Amino acid sequence: MLYRLGRATAAEIQQAMPDPPSYSAVRTLLRILEEKGHIRHEQDGTRYVYLPRVARDYARRSALRHMLNTFFEGSAAQAIAALIDEDSKRLSDDDWSRLTAMIERARKEGG
């Protein structure tokens, strides 16, 4: 949520979340993320305003790697298959063409 908002207080993050946890839970998560070096805060009067420390693209890749290892035994093919199974009816012809082109480009570059 913080990447979407750019910079935000705990209350703003909580309000932007669908089915949000308690304010206390949001603050706890922000503290943990800050301790791990993922985010930082600036003080604005009595409020803490949080900002990402890690570039969005790096965070995206890191989260994806973690998800692949946790749920798909590190297999991109298993993850892609699960996504296609879930979304195949919603994919347009243009989506299928882009996916096919990406697979072909990766195949040429990788091997």
Can you describe what's shown?
The chain has 2 domains: 2-52, Winged helix-like DNA-binding domain superfamily/Winged helix DNA-binding domain (Arc Repressor Mutant, subunit A); 56-110, no CATH class. Helix content is 63%, strand content 11%. It has helices at 2-5, 10-16, 23-35, 56-71, 76-87, 93-110, and strands spanning 39-44, 47-52. β1 (39-44) and β2 (47-52) form a beta hairpin. The protein is elongated, with a radius of gyration of 18 Å. The mean pLDDT is 92.
**Global outline:** elongated
What is the number of domains?
2
Distance between the termini: 37 Å
In terms of DSSP E residues, the strand content is 5-15%
Q: What is the C-alpha radius of gyration, as a whole number of Å? A: 18 Å
The helix-and-strand class reads mainly alpha
Helical stretch tally: 6
**What is the N-to-C order of secondary-structure elements (H for helix, E for strand)?**
HHHEEHHH
Biggest sheet details: 2 strands, antiparallel
Question: Low-confidence parts lasting 5 or more residues at pLDDT below 50?
Answer: none
Helix content: 55-70%
According to DSSP, the number of beta strands is 2
The strand order across the widest sheet is 1-2
Mean pLDDT: 92
